[in-house]
Amino acid sequence: MYKFLVACRAGVGSSLILKIKMIQVIEENQLPITIEHTNLDGVAGFDGDVIFTLSDVAEELKAEYPNRYIVGVQNIVDKVQLLKDMQDFLNTRQVD
Amino acid sequence: MGYKTIEADAIQFQIEADDWEEAIRKTAMPLVKQQKVLPEYVEEMIRVVKTEGPYFVIMKHVAMPHAKAECGALETAVSLATLRNPVYFGHKNDPVKYIICLSSVNGEEHLQNISRIADLLGKEDFFQVLDTTSNKDVVCKFFNQ
Prior knowledge:
The complex is a heterodimer of chains A (96) and B (145). By secondary structure, chain A is an alpha/beta fold.
C-alpha cells in the first residue's frame, strides 16, 4: 500500500472534493493507495509517498519540498487525469 | 435525506460583475444577508486570492471561494451564482462563469455539502441547467436530492 496525502490551504473545500474523487478512482480501479487529508500545515510531517494538491499550490510545494513526489491537479473532478497521475506514480514503483 | 445543502435565495443567475472580486462579493451576499457569514468572511475570501493566489478555481470555469471557519463563518452554508460576463482570476481554469461560496462550521453538514458538490461538478447536465434555467428550485433540487 502506498500512502498519498491530499492537501490544500484551508483544508476545508477544494482538497475535500479532491479527496472524494481520488477515493472513487482508487476504489473503481482497485489501486494499492490509501489517502490522508490535511491543510498545508500538515505537509511537513507527512511520511507517505505522494502529495496531491491544486496546481498552483503544487508549484509552491515543489519549491519548498524539492525531494517529494508532488502532483498538481488542475481539474479536481477529472477522474481520467487523476487515474493517470496515480498510475504514473505506481509505474515508478513497479520494477519488472 | 431532507438536509438542504443550498437555499433558493442563496442562488443567483447571470449576475453582473466587473471583476473576480465583485463576483465573489455578489455571490456571497446572500450568505451575509442570511447571517450565515460575517462580512469579514467575504473579505477573507478575497484576501486569500490576493495574498495566496486563486487556488480555489478548481476546474474549468468554476471557482469555489471559501475561508477558514474562524474568519467569520457563522453557519455551514453554500451560495451559488452564474455570471453574465465571465471574470478572470489569473488562473489556468479562467474564464470563470460559475462561483460557489462555502462556509463551514459543522463538519458533518459540511462534508455532506462537499460530497454533493463533488458529485454535481462531475455532471455536464448540471452546468447545462445552470446556463439555461432561471428557476432556482430546479437548481436546489440538484443540490438537495
